[in-house]
Write a structure and sequence with these properties.
By secondary structure, the protein is α/β, with parallel strands linked by helices. It has 2 domains: 7-130 and 165-193, 3-Layer(aba) Sandwich (Rossmann fold); 243-319. Helices cover 50% and strands 11% of the residues. Strand 7 and strand 8 (315-319) form a beta hairpin. The longest helix is centred in the last third of the chain and has 26 residues, at 217-242. It starts with 6 loop residues before the first helix and ends in an 8-residue tail after the last strand.
Length: 327
């Protein structure tokens, strides 16, 4: 069985998303895990010969696990056997910023490495192997942490920077079953079993009983995420109209009245860069909205060691004078 049983559903999904691989150049992110190896096999066996697409790959060695070199070796062998150009990007974990989680650092650095590899290989669209299980896990993870409408859209098929997820409608089990039928090896990341990591807790503790109670759970949740994703463009236009960034610039900050009136988290995230907070963490936005909803007389939240967002005369502004360390 060389053709994957899930190919018809994938092609239907691609058509609905306006994804046409004909004659395109793709850079595949290949970690060595089952999902990314399935992505490699799909594009080498099906997409390249059928649609005349060209395929290259990038492997990011995060150097976070003792067996990372074995992951890299497998990817090198798979790509060499299939004649796929490969770029290996090796990261330095010691460069991680103080206080930044390992997961966040790895994610940021991985996408930066993808962009570098794409430029060096002259590849086009970057593809990652996110699938339906990932989308469902993301939905519940964001719901658990508290999210707005954009969070309920799960994983987008196509990111703002063009990174695309062609396997999004396929479940993890189907990908692995196809690899077993092909006899293609992959590597297991032992850290994926660590339930102390939030996503793994959702995967191994939260979802199994829900899936046992409703075998169609993933199908239903995925349908919800796609419906929400379709609404997002109109929602974002409304958010911008209700809380324009131009007004934040004019006021010199975010009106506290917006926050106390139940400002949506997406609107807040859209406005915070005007205060110099380019990538607001979920914890920051959650704390701002929590204080705004409570009885706190003045909103005041730390951004980093020397900077806070503080309410002054009814406007949330960036300040460098509060929480400054004494010398």
């Amino acid at each position: 069985m060389s053709t994957p049983p899930f190919l018809p559903s994938v092609l239907s999904f691609w058509e609905s998303e306006g994804f046409d691989p004909s004659g395109k150049s793709f850079l595949l992110g290949v970690s060595g895990g089952a999902d990314s190896v399935a992505l490699l096999e799909l594009f080498v066996r099906e997409v390249a010969p059928r649609w005349g697409a060209s395929v290259a790959a990038v492997h990011v060695n995060h150097r976070l696990r003792p067996d990372a070199a074995m992951d890299q070796l497998l990817v090198e062998e798979l790509c060499a056997d299939r004649g796929v150009p490969l770029r290996v990007e090796t990261l330095d974990p010691s460069a991680r910023r103080s206080g930044q989680s390992v997961e966040m650092w790895a994610r940021e650095q991985r996408y930066a490495a993808f962009a570098r590899a794409s430029a060096r290989l002259g590849a086009g669209t970057i593809l990652t192997a996110h699938h339906r299980d990932d989308a469902v896990e993301t939905f519940y993870l964001r719901l658990w942490r508290g999210t707005g409408l954009a969070g309920l859209a799960g994983i987008p098929f196509r990111r703002a920077d063009g990174v695309t997820r062609p396997l999004l409608p396929v479940d993890r089990a189907a990908l692995r079953a196809w690899l077993r039928a092909l006899g293609t090896p992959w590597r297991e990341d032992a850290s994926n079993a660590d339930a102390r990591i939030a996503r793994n807790w959702v995967r191994h503790k939260w979802l199994p009983p829900l899936r046992a109670a409703d075998p169609r759970l993933d199908e239903k949740v995925f349908r919800i995420t796609r419906s929400v994703a379709a609404l997002l463009p109109a929602w974002e236009r409304w958010v911008e109209a209700e809380h324009p960034v131009e007004a934040v610039v004019e006021f010199g900050g975010i009106p506290a009245a917006w926050l106390r009136a139940g400002m949506e988290v997406e609107a807040l995230k859209n406005c915070l860069p005007a205060l110099g907070v380019a990538a607001p963490a979920p914890e920051l936005t959650a704390e701002l909205l929590r204080q705004a909803a409570g009885a706190t007389s003045k909103i005041q939240v730390r951004v980093d060691e020397s900077t806070v967002l503080v309410e002054k005369r009814g406007i949330l502004v960036r300040s460098h004078s509060v929480f400054r360390r004494k010398t």
